[in-house]
# Entry
Amino acid sequence: MKLEIYFNDVFVGELFYSGEFSIKYSKKWLENGFFLSPHLKNPTHKNIEIFLQNLLPEGENLETISLFKQISKYNTFRLIEEIGTDITGAISFRKPYQKIDTKFIPLNMEELLDKLNSNSNIAIWDKTIRLSIAGVNKKLPIMIKNKQFGFGDGEYASTHIFKFDKNNLNLVENEFLSLKRNKNKVGAIFILKKEKDPLADIHFSVLKEKLNKEFDYIVLLEPTSPLREREDIDKAIDVLIECIKDES
# Structure
């Protein structure tokens, strides 16, 4: 069994598997190219296997892909064969004579919001496996074309990263506010709102009933949150006001 290795669209060589892995670089690539890893200058089966396994998703996403494709998570070659055109970096693994069409696939917003609200696995989109970036939060690389979210295949590359909150810890919201304060140093950032927080609705209702007033925003300081200074709260409100101005 073999796969062709590419750096972008430049042919690098071939990956072989017959019980053990081996790599054969093309002569043309070796003239001006580079080794896939310092450990793959004289590639051994073990070094190749470790290199390939590090290209695969981890944990929950690896389990999901394994079940979705009905491939053992220990069958490294078959997994690379299935998702090798969408792995980290500019290297890709393709079946012989496989062509990759360049196309933009719009992201189904209903599916996105459903995943945001249900905290479901993000490895599978529209019955297709999509690369997931490792880290504390779930992250999904996407691209924006004509103000539309989607996935890019072929020559297209991701331009943005979707970050999903983990167990409602508000880590994403905190990072969003931090980046907003340094907006001149980072690219475009935005946040997609989930469904309304039922607890927030209760607070709005109680305030309206008790004070006979309506509010656009409330500040909820939960007792389980870390201690804050008065200045911290003032600064957070200042950032909120800046965000409102940016959106208007």
Summary: The mean pLDDT is 77.
